[in-house]
Automatic annotation (TrEMBL):
Residues 1-59, 93-204 form the C2 domain. It comes from the Eukaryota. PROSITE patterns: C2 (PS50004). This is MCTP2 protein. The keyword Glycosyltransferase does not apply. InterPro entries: C2_dom, C2_domain_sf. It is a multi-pass membrane protein. Its main location: membrane. The gene is Mctp2.
Amino acid sequence: KSANPQWREQFDFHYFSDRKDMLDIEVWRKDNKKHEELLGTCHVDIAALPMKQTNRLELPLEKHPGSLLMLVVVAPCTGVSISDLCVCPLGDPSERQQISQRYCIKNSFRDIKDIGFLQVKVLKAVDLLAADFSGKSDPFCVLELGNDMLQTHTVYKNLNPEWNKVFTFPIKDIHDVLEVTVFDEDGDKPPDFLGKVAIPLLSV
């Protein structure tokens, strides 16, 4: 019930500078659980923004009245990676020892924001739901930790996909929950949900 909503949400996207990416934003209106209406879109050219500073952007919505106010910071990030299983980070014993030293008890208060990081090996899924008429699915896996999100590639026409990928996340809140969701890629349509598991970090 507002024409001037304030969300005050922060999201982290992992941007690789060798790509020319646009940040696409859509504003939607909900009437009820079933009906949604697009109120407008806007775009941000990430490569055109200055690095390491807060950019205050007021973006007019295309073909619709209104504008969106947002703060965007493009900054180097550490601790985020996607790799194949054969070149897994922390596979080197000396690297593991350095990490253990970095997060040992005596260094707990050296950097309060550096809580640690989580490494997840996504190996495979078994006996997935068939989402296509062919009796197969085109599954990919999405990992979310707080407002961080990484995903695997899609394995086409397969109910027992193998991804064999290693994901590394920096941890910002030890009370966060790792959510792992499997979707079926469906072309230009939104992906179909195939299943989900939630793992609290405190249980690891």
